[in-house]
Amino acid sequence: MTEYDNIELRSEKVRNIIGRVPPELATGGTVYIAFLLFVLFIAAAIIPYPENIRTGIIVTYKDRQHIQAEAYIPYRFINRIEDGTDIIVEMEGFTAQRYGYNSGVIEAVEDSLISRNGTNYFRAYLTLKVPFKYDVKWNMQGVATITISDKSILQYMLGK
């Protein structure tokens, strides 16, 4: 029985073929992975990744030419919001899918601290562009989206 335990099942040619990695496969796989990483790098450099803040607003003044509103923005964004920043607004009861978004601008930022329910805010005064497709009422509420950064994914990863 001991004579049959050490039998070679494959010839030397077969063992050479099995033991050797084809160079085309190794080179091709490396090139494929390098190309894929290059494409991902280019996509990360080109594709924008905007950073937005969504906050509630309330209409405080309305006449034929002007609509003004206030927004309470979390205080952690105090250094990122500036006068003149563009906003888009969706008013309560008038969905953006049906009526579209309205635009506006931040006119002034108050840096005083306002505390509500354990969270700190600051007040921003907004001017909304007229005309609206519907009648805006005094004290009407809505949601404003403020874009504070429009950098690419790569710019976020690399920092400044």
TrEMBL record:
Keywords: Membrane, Transmembrane, Transmembrane helix. The keyword Transmembrane applies. The chain crosses the membrane at residues 29-49. This is HlyD family secretion protein.
